[in-house]
Amino acid sequence: MAGVQVSNVSRSFGAHKALDDVSIDFADGGFYALLGPSGSGKTTLLRQVAGFDFPDSGRISIGGESVERVPVEKRRIGMVFQNYALFPNMSVADNVAFGLSVRGEAKAVIASEVQRALDLVQLGKLGGRRPHQLSGGQRQRVALARAIVTKPRVLLLDEPLGALDKALRVDMQIELKRIQREIGITTIFVTHDQEEALTMSDRIGILRDGRLVQEGPPEEIYDQPKSEFAATFLGDANIFRGESTGNGIKLPDGTAIAAGAGAKLAAGAKASCAVRPERIRIATDVEAQDAANANMLKGQVSKRIFAGNNSTYFVERGGQTLKVIVQNTGIDRLAEGQDVVLRWAPESTVLIATS
Amino acid sequence: MAAQGATASRSGLRSALPLLAPAYLWLTVAIFLPLSAMVFFSFMTELPLSGKPWAFTLGNYAAFFSQSLYLTLLLASLRLGLVVTLWCIVIGYPAAYVLAKVLKGRSREAIFLLVILPFWSNGLVRIFSWAMVLREGGILDTALNAVLPFKINIDLMYSYPAVIIGLVHSYVPYMVLTCYLTLQAIDDSLIEAGRSLGASRLQVLKRVIIPLSMPGLVAGAALIFVPVVGSFMEPRILGGRTGTFYGTVIEDQFVAVFNWPLGAALSFILLAVVLIILAVASPVLRRAA
């Protein structure tokens, strides 16, 4: 096992900058998600760490050893591909054995290691099958067993759950996390699914246009996004744009929105506030006072989407559509067209500098 | 369920009949009838067209076994087929690999065109062009002597190598095309997966790419081996006196000696031998594929 350090890595394809001065420290034994829209450079970054492609500049080290010019077969990594990439001409056991066998391990060692890896992914009895006889979830497990049987220093996963249906994906998320904990391997996981990133990883790196936008534990990125992009890409957010008042903003129509105590920005600068939809209270009572939820806006419900355990209200306010998520408590269902008041706490408001 | 399935497939056949009929009618008229006539001829003493009296005989087939020359030539032709097929693999497979896995876009199209080009030129023109290249004082001889500081004599014309060169040139596109198709179908991520597991490029080639492209290799080999064993044009023009093979002997019977019955009998013996070889090889090849 080993940590991975990516320092100032850049990579261009023609005029297109796929990676622009990216630095991330992947801690030893951690589960790290690289999140971003397609074309953000997350897969390019993973391929640099894997060694399929070399950076134009910058350094990559695995376990302290500099590897940016080491070809993939010498890096001792394990990789799971989006389409699994199982060898169709080999049985499941031979697929898993491949890495050990090219290394020239003894037959007996290979057999016992392969069995152990297959047991770990709960496919111990399917070694004799061919890949095409397996379901999507089983192929996924074989791909994982094949990647970890060689005891790699780092496990790289390229959207490994993208091809699975929803229920299976949730099962595999739990399974993958269990296996990762069990062997304690440094894992880098590329995904465009924010929920996957939130539920599985210890840390998340958000990429956009080849740059690292923000990096940190899931809670921190969700609660304290540093940019509008981070706020809206990881989870949903209502964005208000205006002028900074020091610890809040003033909207163009003069309405003030206060941010939490820690927020500080030079007054007068352009700034925005992000508020998560589930942090906003929605009510019909205009007169009621609520000291804790000092921020208040009036609006009109334009649409309600009922999703069982919660409802999403779309509220029109000053030409902007705001989103509010309300838990289904069985009371206070609001109709479309109704005038409402939105209130939320300054602590639920994140002040973001814009330029 | 089963009955339903049967009805479905029967009605499927009925609707497919108009689509199948032209091909099968054509095959019947154009191949089956003349071939049947040839089978008939091969059991005759004389060609009925010449007006001479004729009788049924097995003598034409017996001739193959009574004269060791025919067997010798057949073995030489089989060896020729094997050698040409091997050269086509050696030359065609790497080209197919580069076309399928290395080149992209425009450059792939351009190289592809160069591979297909022999198909579009007339066979005789192709062979006579080789004759101009290979003969003493020809293009190859002159070019090499212009470059090299010492004098060498290149006269490949009328030799076994010349026959091989001509045949490989004619047939290598088949190997490139069949291998290209199977190589192109191999997902690049399989190659990357192999390398991520610590395999060198050579190990990936041996354990993943070649096994997966085996169907293309087998198809290409069959497409090349069968016609080369019966070939006569390249051996005759490029091989001269050394170019006597089983195919040229058959051609002689039809064109020069006018012994059609013997020519037909020799052809069917060749067909039988080729079919036996393919039948024996097919289980092995299928397992490999």
TrEMBL record, chain A:
Keyword ATP-binding annotated: yes
One GO molecular-function entry: ABC-type polyamine transporter activity
GO biological process, any: putrescine transport
Organism domain of life: Bacteria
GO cellular component: ATP-binding cassette (ABC) transporter complex
Record has Metal-binding as a keyword: no
UniProt catalytic activity: ATP + H2O + polyamine-[polyamine-binding protein]Side 1 = ADP + phosphate + polyamineSide 2 + [polyamine-binding protein]Side 1
Pfam families from the UniProt entry: ABC_tran, TOBE_2
InterPro entries according to UniProt: AAA+_ATPase (IPR003593), ABC_SmlMolc_Importer (IPR050093), ABC_transporter-like_ATP-bd (IPR003439), ABC_transporter-like_CS (IPR017871), Mo/tungstate-bd_C_term_dom (IPR008995), P-loop_NTPase (IPR027417), PotA-like (IPR005893), Transp-assoc_OB_typ2 (IPR013611)
EC identifiers of the protein: 7.6.2.11
Top-level class of the enzyme under EC nomenclature: translocase
Coiled-coil blocks: none
Residue ranges of domain ABC transporter in the record: 4-234
Keywords: ATP-binding, Cell membrane, Membrane, Nucleotide-binding, Translocase, Transport
PANTHER family: SPERMIDINE/PUTRESCINE IMPORT ATP-BINDING PROTEIN POTA, SPERMIDINE_PUTRESCINE IMPORT ATP-BINDING PROTEIN POTA
Homology family: Belongs to the ABC transporter superfamily. Spermidine/putrescine importer (TC 3.A.1.11.1) family.
Record function comment: Part of the ABC transporter complex PotABCD involved in spermidine/putrescine import. Responsible for energy coupling to the transport system.
Record text on subunit structure and interactions: The complex is composed of two ATP-binding proteins (PotA), two transmembrane proteins (PotB and PotC) and a solute-binding protein (PotD).
Protein name according to UniProt: Spermidine/putrescine import ATP-binding protein PotA
Encoding gene, per UniProt annotation: potA
From TrEMBL, chain B:
Subcellular location, record wording: Cell membrane
GO terms for cellular component: plasma membrane
InterPro entries linked: MetI-like (IPR000515), MetI-like_sf (IPR035906)
Transmembrane segments: 23-43, 55-74, 80-99, 111-133, 158-183, 204-226, 262-285
SUPFAM superfamilies reported for this sequence: MetI-like
Major subcellular site: membrane
Highest taxon in the source lineage: Bacteria
Membrane topology: Multi-pass membrane protein
Alphabetized UniProt keyword annotations: Cell membrane, Membrane, Transmembrane, Transmembrane helix, Transport
Pfam families from the UniProt entry: BPD_transp_1
BP terms from Gene Ontology: transmembrane transport
Transferase in keyword set: no
Domain ABC transmembrane type-1: 74-281
Entries under Gene3D superfamilies matching the protein: MetI-like
PANTHER family with a match to the protein in the record: INNER MEMBRANE ABC TRANSPORTER PERMEASE PROTEIN YDCU-RELATED (PTHR42929:SF1), INNER MEMBRANE ABC TRANSPORTER PERMEASE PROTEIN YDCU-RELATED-RELATED (PTHR42929)
Family as reported in the entry's similarity comment: Belongs to the binding-protein-dependent transport system permease family. CysTW subfamily.
Protein name: ABC transporter permease
